[in-house]
Structures are given as C-alpha cells and as structure tokens.
C-alpha cells in the first residue's frame, strides 16, 4: 500500500496558503460566520457556521479552483484547464476559468443535475458527457486531456486545490476567537486537508473533526484501518461526499484529523432541514452532515466553541430530500 | 375621510428612532447586507439586500416588537402584551415578551402557517385563533384585550412599532453608501413608515418605493386615490402583506413614498425562487415582492444603487409555492 500512504506529489505548506489567499482574494468572498441561539441551545455548544454556501458559485471549491487557475503561467493558461466532476468543482473551475477568460472542459456524467450543467455552461465552460461510472469517466477524461493538453485540476488531490481550500479556515480563525474544534464534511478530503494544513500551522490547539455519511463512510473506515479504503459507487443524499480519499488528502487526514464521525441519511436530511428552518440558509445535503454528527455526539461538542464549514448551497429546489417522504 | 387622513395618535420622530435603537440593540442582530452579481447583471442595478430574514425570529418585526415591549414600565409589563397578526409580528412579539419574561397573547387566523404557530408557542406565547378576515380578527381580539387588560401592540399602526422598524434603514444607510433608492414590501405599512421616517430625516435624497402584490394592492390604490382603501380578505401567496393601511402608516406613505409598484403571484413566486437559488437565502414570499417589481420595472432601477429590505424568512418548508405547479 506504499503508493497509497506516501504522497507522490508535492505537499503544500502554509506559505502556499498565504500565496493562495492573496491570489484569489479578488475573485472570492470572505464569507460571513453566522450563529443560531436555537442550535446552540439544542447542542449545548457554541456553533459558528462559516457560510461557504454564500461563496461565489455557492461552494468553497471556488477557492481551490481559483488558486489553480490564477497560478497558471500565461502560456499554460492559453491551453486551458480540464476536470471531471459531477458537482461543485465543475461549477467552481468553470467560474475561475471564466474570470481569467480561459478555456475549461468538464467531463460530467450524463446523469448530473441539469442545474449544474446549466451553471457550467453559464460560466462559459464546455461539457463532455460520460457514463456515470468511474471507468467511463476516466476513459473519457483521458481522451479530453490527450486531445487538448489542458491542465488537469483535480477536484481535491492537487496541492494547488488544497492550498486554496485552506484559506477558508484561515478566514474562520480570524473571524472567531478561541475555537476548540473545527468540523467539516469529508468526501475526497480537499476541504479537510486544507483545514488541517491551516490549523496545524497557525492554531494547532484546535481539533479537526470530519463528518461523513454512514452510507459513504470510506474515510472513517480508512482512518480506523490505517490505509485508504475506496468504495466504488456509494449511494447517499450527500452527493458531494461520494468520492474516495487519494494519497495527498490521506496524508493530511491520517496526520491531523482527530476523528471522523458518521450520520445516517435520515439524520443528514433532518439536520439540513433544521439549518434551512432555523438559520434561513439554503445549504446542500453535504453541508448538513456536520450538524447531524454534532447532534448525534453531544458529548464531544458540549461546552465547546465549534467552527462548522458549511460547504455549499447548490441544491435542486424542485426536489428537496424531505419531500420524498 | 378625515379620521383616515389625519392620524389621531402620536407621530414618531427620528429622536424616537434613536431611543429605540439603543433600547433594542441587545435583543436584535445588525443584519448583514448581501449582494448578487447575477441579480445585478439581470436588473442592471446595484442591489443591496438587507437580510432581515437573518434577524431574530427571522423577521424585521422583532425591531418594533422589542421597542414596544422594552419601553413598557414594570407596572405595564406585569399585565403583559397582546396582538393580532398573520405571522411575523406574532413571532416577534412572542420573542420580545419572552426576552423580557412577560405574558403575551396572540390572535392568529386559524389558516396561519403551522410553522408560525409553533414558533409563537416555542417563544412562550399563547395563541387564540380567529377566522382569516380582518373583521373576525378584530372581533376576537377585542374580547382578548377586554379580558386581560394587556397592552395592545399593533402590528404596524403604533408609533413604538414604527420607530422600531425605522432602525432597519438606519443600519442600512450606515452599511451602504450613496443609495439612490430603498424599496420594501408594503402590507399595513409599518416597515415602509419606519423607512420613510428614517430616510426623510437623515437621507432625504433617497427615494422610497414600496412593493405590493397585485392581488392585495390596496395601498397602491390608496396612494392613487389619496385616501385609505382597505380590502377585507385579499388572497396572495405573500401572506404578510394582506392587511390594510391605517392612519399612522398612511401619514408616512402619502407624504414620503415615491410610488407603490405591484407584481402578480407568478412574478412573486419566480422572484422568491430566484433569491433562494442565486443568493442561497430562505426568504418568504412577502420578501420577494420587491425583487419581482424591480424585474418588472427595470427603467426605474437601472444604474441605481438600490437597498432592498428582505423582510423575513418564515416559510413552510414542506409547502413551497413553486411546488404547487
């Protein structure tokens, strides 16, 4: 398993985060931190919600995408960028490329939500469709890159992307004093890796927790096992959290994450509805896994000051998960 | 029509607004002002959304309610407060009374959203139900007050309430420079009156527009006619805007409002969905009437810096208006 446990690529440092933040500031929001007395009373904790659903493209992934795109030389930029993603990374890379005025090609499963395809096109991106399987995605994507020579911006296993995501908790610790814990959802681990990178450097006393759907708990099982476990096609309402860890994100997870907590589909949907109802924020299911795990594990969070990364707000308003019942 | 055109009660001044703001500050949020590049491009205006949906009780009405409740003497407070309301004023008075620890009784139409009834009870209020018409509400309410002697905090035709609502645009002009226009929804006219009170004093160059559902356009017809026209039971998805003007709010509307614009039910629902989709904010239908009228009357707003009061976020998440289709 050595290739899975020792990253073969450059491991970003906090200096990269500082460079990233200066580079992306013109293209992102410093998102607000909101609180809810109701949810504080319900959990016994002091919760500080870092609202990346109010970010450009309604997703933290704009941070990493902008860092990758605006870090390209003019020569590189001329050739354009490409990625595969069924969701927020697709929108975010399209947004970033649009801001720089360069070409972007996104390989998306033909089953991806039309709203997300429309948004990619709205930002000026080109979509190439694949079948909804890992094998089809990789085959189609290889072809795209072979033809165009475009720079591949991986959704998470990329030092530029991780350094970009790391700017989120850099803002958070500046906005909220004396946090005890920061918790974020974990899918491929890009946001968690960025969070670990920033906090282990500038606030190592803060514990980092990750939250994962029980239906896609490969990261939790990886942390217990001590090596990367990848599931092929997990099924969860938290559609941003289906992808597996890769070597670079595993490096940060295994070295800096205190624990990975899980929640059921019902708990995730209930927490999502609670955030909509009490905080008046549109958040996507992936963003609600954190609150679901806090409600499920009060003993960890009680009396603590807890930063929660709300990762995004891209959701189909015509198909809300609590309406399936 | 003299009783309808000359207020019989005290007309609040900007000094009352200053007192109100100091009084209520511990119990309210200074709500954020958010922007959307997409909506700016769509309207050709610069829009600044003052997010009272992120206010305590998710409604600007907390401002007026807190000013009334915390302005009572200890003697008065002991007897408690009462009101009739189709929604947010009920929650808000219940919240304010709960903060002061005094009794509150609310007369609500039996058709009011369950979420709003639950919230009133959650804050410790008592609900007495009436039929969904102005006449029934007033009859039931008279009985309640006759029995308890509670201080009547009218939802809008009350100088204490208007002075409280006026703190919202006081914050707004502090948060955003050089506004040309401020627009707010109009039902009974409490928010619009407060807006007129503040802006006519400290920023008289700003034009105040009101936005109203076409299905409940009594204020627009009043402004044209030059006297109060009241409908008994208009039907609109914007359930906070069904009530008529009263003498005190009419005083501010006729003297300071530039125009009252209207929008159809379809336009209101489309604008509401647009705010949810693009700004990731849960706003109620009444809050979307403003954007609906801006989209409908681009010539008024184009090139202007426009403050928009987002009045509240209390909506039944199980019954969203675009899902009836």
UniProtKB/TrEMBL annotation, chains A, B:
The keyword Lyase applies. GO terms for biological process: D-serine biosynthetic process. GO terms for molecular function: ATP binding; L-serine ammonia-lyase activity; magnesium ion binding; pyridoxal phosphate binding; serine racemase activity; threonine deaminase activity; threonine racemase activity. CDD domains: Thr-dehyd. Its cofactor is pyridoxal 5'-phosphate. It is an enzyme of class 4 (lyase). Residues 25-312 form the Tryptophan synthase beta chain-like PALP domain. Keywords: Lyase, Pyridoxal phosphate. It holds the Pfam family PALP. Its EC number is 4.3.1.19. NCBIfam families: BHydaspDhtseBhcB (NF045641). Belongs to the serine/threonine dehydratase family. This is Threonine dehydratase.
């Amino acid at each position: 398993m050595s290739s899975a446990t020792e990253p073969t690529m450059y491991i970003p440092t906090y200096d990269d985060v500082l460079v990233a933040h200066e580079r992306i500031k013109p293209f992102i929001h410093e998102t607000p931190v909101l609180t809810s007395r109701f949810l504080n009373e319900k959990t016994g904790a002091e919760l500080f919600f870092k609202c990346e659903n109010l970010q450009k493209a309604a997703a933290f992934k704009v941070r990493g995408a902008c860092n990758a795109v605006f870090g390209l030389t003019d020569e590189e930029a001329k050739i354009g960028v490409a990625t595969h993603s069924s969701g927020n990374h697709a929108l975010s890379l399209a947004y970033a490329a649009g801001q720089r005025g360069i070409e972007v090609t996104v390989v998306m499963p033909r089953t991806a939500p039309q709203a997300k395809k429309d948004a990619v096109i709205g930002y000026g991106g080109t979509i190439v469709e694949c079948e909804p399987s890992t094998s089809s995605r990789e085959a189609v994507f290889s072809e795209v890159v072979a033809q165009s020579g475009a720079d591949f911006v991986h959704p998470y296993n990329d030092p530029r992307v991780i350094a970009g995501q790391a700017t989120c908790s850099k803002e958070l610790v500046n906005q909220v004093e004396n946090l005890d814990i920061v918790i974020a959802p974990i899918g491929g681990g890009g946001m968690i890796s960025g969070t670990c990178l920033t906090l282990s450097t500038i606030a190592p006393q803060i514990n980092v927790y990750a939250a994962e759907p029980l239906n896609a708990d490969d990261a939790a099982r990886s942390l217990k096992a001590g090596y990367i476990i990848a599931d092929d096609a997990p099924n969860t309402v938290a559609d941003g959290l289906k992808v597996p860890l890769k070597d670079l994100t595993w490096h940060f997870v295994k070295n800096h994450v205190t624990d990975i907590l899980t929640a059921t589909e019902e708990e995730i949907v209930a927490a999502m509805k609670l955030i909509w109802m009490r905080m008046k924020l549109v958040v996507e299911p992936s963003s609600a896994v954190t609150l679901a795990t806090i409600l499920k594990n009060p003993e960890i969070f009680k009396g603590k000051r807890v930063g929660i990364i709300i990762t995004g707000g891209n959701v189909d308003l015509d198909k809300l998960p609590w309406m399936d019942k």
